[in-house]
Amino acid sequence: MVEERVKEECANAIGGGNAGVMVDSTTIGNMVAGMAITPKSNFTELIDLGVPLDKIKTGSTHVLILYSQGRAMPTAIQEQSLKQTFVPEVSHTEALENCDYLNVQLVDHSKSRKQCLALVPQYESYHLQKWMRVPVKANGFHGSLDRKQPLRLVSRGLNGKAKEEFPPPGKGVTERAFAMLKTYLNSLDDVKKDLKDLIQNGLKPYNDKVIIVMVCNFGQSELLMNFVCHARSKNFDTSSVLVFATDTETEDLAKSLGLAAYYDERNFGHIPSEAAKRYGDNRFTAMMVAKIVCVQLISHLGYDFLFQDVDILWYKHPLSDYFVKPGHWTEKYDAIFQDDGGHSVRYAPYSANSGFYYVRHNDRTRSFLNTLLMSSDIIIQTDSHQQAMIAILNEHVSLYGLRVKVVSRDEEDMPGGYQWNMKSGSYMKAFFSGEIKPLIFHMSWTMNKDNKIKYFQQMGAWHVEERCIAKRKNEISGAASSNELTSTCCSVEPIFKCHYRDKPSVHPCKDSPPIDAGRSSFW
After folding, report:
1. Which of the residues 145, 338, 473, 495 could staple to 160 if both were Cys, CB 3.0 to 4.6 A apart?
2. Confidence at 68, pLDDT banded by 50, 70, 90
3. What distance in Å separates the CA atoms of residue 292 and residue 248, rounded to the nearest whole number?
């Protein structure tokens, strides 16, 4: 059918000169000889982009492919090179059958912008330049979108309302980052020796090659305790978990919970022991920097690792049932991430959640983690570990061919704040009914620790006795002389409490107030 249409159009073109031909060989013929479209769903099955894919909807069902020369075009339409008067649709295998090289660009399809794409015949670049019609402010930054202004080069993080998501780190921020790095690098050999000793004398890497890494301060210790209690209630092995404690109180608690723990005063002594009051505050940012130090260390020692935040619960064992399961689909990737769910410009294009990800040790991942550590000023400037990680991830995919996969928010395996806050409540209702059996649950997208605890209680996933909350080891009755806190602090059955009627709950909480004004009951 495609061949018949091509012959018909070519005959019309021959009979009428170049009238209606889309590509002029004298102007752009060395760059574009032809084009075709192919279904997006089939294309992305063949070409795994690694990103969480947007749902297909009318107006963005197909991929547009441009061919640099006739020999690159699908065999069935090669005779149409430089003669096309329409864009044919071909199968995904036909579309790429003669492509020796394929460059892929992910493009906004929301129709919210008057956007143009310019292909310039030039020395090839693997980066985009973004231009907008905006004024220039006195401080060198740009103002809001103004169609009276000329197009100006801007950062990729600038939106139409003049919000800059990627401001360059200031001098003071850089000096703070340098001071942290100086301390870290000066202590690196000693810290590595400490960790090697700990691994040999207590920690049990899974299959002798995988370590589960967590970072915690005393202010978040209840969440760490709940993770352990929940895992024990399901008989999951936690012997491969290494907690990087940022204070001695947390180190004591972690060890008493049966976990391997390490505290280094040189690198973590300055970090507040209190929980962050909100996302992005100074305590939060200090913990984010600690998280990149820890994973870089484990990578430097040559181990694969799973990093996870303390507000995560296991429903299957993430190593034996998933990342290290023989023949599992994750084997072909260097790094696998949970989808954060917030597909904003800050996190484009991966939306990778920095609170749950698996990394295989190799030269590509070691370089990625080294670069992330050396870019700690971006974390401090943006108050976001995740934002910096995704920006560097994107660069290393391009520069080194880092093989990355983000498990889409539309899949069942790795739910978090996105699913918890869905207005329809469909995912959580399926979860409570047992219809969905995920790998983990990540209580992300919450204001602070207090909300996380309340949400876990409503979810029927809180296992920490009240007498152990916000307590140091020596303040917990019956625990001072014992190294086993689980018998004192862990409830075998979940401790359920209602708090907010508009948030998911394993049992109805219709008599409770809403946390978000105007929201109806979840049930």
Report:
1. 145
2. very high
3. 20
